[in-house]
Design a protein that fits this description.
This protein has one domain. 67% of the residues lie in helices and 15% in strands. It is of the alpha+beta class and 150 residues long.
């Protein structure tokens, strides 16, 4: 029973993140164009487009697409290894990175830029997919380090 629950969480959590991020992006593109739900002076939700990479750094569009495709290949290969090893914690982390990257990749294909909507004043503007990528990578590195230490 516990194994089934782990498997369900490992698969459903990334899918939920993907659907929620795509839904928010759709709402921001089609309905919400102004700043909404201001959460104090430091955090607000607003539509922004990022044609560059992290923090808006400019990079050639086709280079970004090629890097995405290479990353998807590497992530898929590593995911198969983790799946065969039955390492659900690291697989969950990797799937979060994978679905976050796919969501942003779809933005690049449809809009030639990434849709961002979480605005942290004086820092950056990003989206839930970016959070999944960063959170997944942090947990992946942490769990690999913890596993190596044992």
């Amino acid at each position: 029973m516990m194994k089934d629950l782990k498997t369900a969480i490992t698969l459903l959590a990334p899918i939920a993140v993907f659907i929620f991020d795509r839904g928010l992006k759709w709402l921001f593109i089609h309905s919400w164009s102004e700043v909404i739900f201001p959460l104090g002076q430091w955090l607000s939700l607003r539509l922004a487009f990022n044609s560059g990479v992290a923090f808006g750094l400019p990079v050639n569009y086709w280079l970004i697409i090629i890097l995405y495709l290479l990353a998807f290949g590497a992530l898929s290969y590593y995911g198969l290894i983790l799946f065969c090893r039955k390492n659900s914690g690291q697989l969950l982390s990797l799937l979060l990175v994978w679905v976050g990257a796919w969501s942003n990749f779809l933005d690049r294909l449809y809009y030639a830029r990434v849709i961002d909507y979480i605005d942290v004043r004086y820092f950056s503007i990003f989206n839930l997919a970016d959070c999944a990528i960063v959170g997944g990578l942090i947990f992946l590195v942490w769990s690999a380090y913890r596993q190596e230490a044992e």
